Structures are given as structure tokens and as C-alpha cells.
Amino acid sequence: MASLQAGQIRADFMVPHQTEEVLARLRHEPRHNLLLMDLVASTEEDPGVGIRNCEVVVASRGAEIVGVASLRPSLILEDGLKSETLAAVLPFLSRLEAGLIKSQAHAVGPVWESLRSVGRNALLDRYEECQVLATKGLRQGPRVLPSGASLRRAESSDLDALVFAARSSLREEDRPDPFYGDPHGFRRWVRGRIGRARLLEVAGQPVFVGYADVCRPEGWLIQGVYTWPDQRRRGYARAGILGMVDEAVQAGAEHVQLAVVVGNRPALGLYESLGFKAFSRLRTILFN
Description:
By secondary structure, the protein is α+β, with helices and mostly antiparallel strands. Helices cover 35% and strands 33% of the residues. The strands form two sheets. It has an eight-stranded mixed sheet, with helices on both faces. The protein has a five-stranded antiparallel sheet with strand order 1-2-3-4-5, sandwiched between helices.
């Protein structure tokens, strides 16, 4: 595909030899760019898979990289992307027929207006508060779990429970349930994430799940947190999150972060009580 230009800035798809330079740039703001860093790194770890499943656009002025954005699997903008750089990247973004935008709230507006102008519709448009917990000085070691509870990595035999939790979480957030249209594809997607899932169970039954979706030295990103409805208000979510934080500390991560839908007071209260602090606001748009 021919590259696109806006003034002196040129945008084009990232090629493998640019990976380390792109990562070095994103490391200047690791908290804001953590998920984007992980996507970029995935193309380096397995080029054959990464180039196919993860598309990254790089904007350059001459030999200098001045901006980064991913198109797939999610549309994510580098933090602090300048307007002229965004103008060079927008033609690539506007070609997306469906997808998920997840970026700093102030940066999403121009992107969404560009997508709306070519007929895209929002299935979900919400704001999330990004919370971060610095790991330096945090106490390590075993924690006391609620009576009868154990925390472990998910296994292939947990697939049905993980599918239930994923579907239930989507419905609680008023998001479309892809299972109805493609049950086999949805199960395949959940199966692909099993290695990231952590389950808290009581008497052999799952009561909490969370996903360590990014596990980098710069930070861990926890997503997909869900507690079974009949097991809430028993301390299981607290125990599960703390267990994942301990795992991140032991792995040497500099911080742990997660995002909470604005207005979800119980979740915000829980994370604040664990020491998490708000540091940015995200806007998430699911569109077709």
C-alpha cells in the first residue's frame, strides 16, 4: 500500500526493523502506552502471527518517528499524539469498517468524527478511569485468602466457566454478546486467553476471574475482572486482585494498572482501598 502524507509527516505500516525504535519511543510514557507497547512487541516475538493479527501505523518526519497507532486488534493512539501527526494517521484509521477504539479521551474525538463521517456507528461509547498502583515498596509474600478460597492460573478445563464470565460481563456492561452470532468463534477467542486468566475458587467452584492481559517489566494490565453474582461482597474480588498484584510484584513489574467504567462506584471504591490511584481517563468506542 502506498504511504500517505500530511505536510512533512509520512505515515505507513510498521515494518519489523522499526520495532525496537517504536518500543523505545513508547517507553518514555509506559503507563499511558502500556497496551500499545505490548501490541508492538507481539509483532517482534512472532512476526508471522503478529503482522497478520496486529497492524501498527508509524508516522515519521524524515528518519524520525513522531507518532504510533495500532489499528488491530484495537485502535490505540500513542499518548500525546500531535494534531499534525494524527492528520497523517487518520486516513488509515478511517478505513476500518468495524473495531474498538480505546485511547486517552481527549484524543478519541477527532478519530471518532473521522469514522462517523464515513458512516460508522457506535455500538458502545463510554468513559473509563484508568487506575494505577506503583509496585515499589509493596509488601510481597503470601496473603491470607478468604476461608476455603484458592487462587490459581486457569486451565483448559475452565473454558466453560470463562465463557460464562465473559458473556455475563458483557451483558452487565450493556455490550453486544458476540456468542449469539458466532459461538465457536467466541469460545475460540476465550480459549486463546486462558493462559492470562487467574481464577479464585471456593470448594472447586470459580467465584472470581481476572486477566493479566499485559505482563511487561514496565507494568501489568489487568482486564476482564468479574465476580460471580451470587458470590459478591465476600472479599473475593479483593483477594483476586491482590493475588494478581503480588504476582506482578514478584515478576518485577514497575506498576499495575486497570480501567474502571466511570460511575462504577463499588469497583472504584475497591481499587482505591487497595491503593490504586486515578491517572488518566480513557474513551472506549465499539463501532461498525
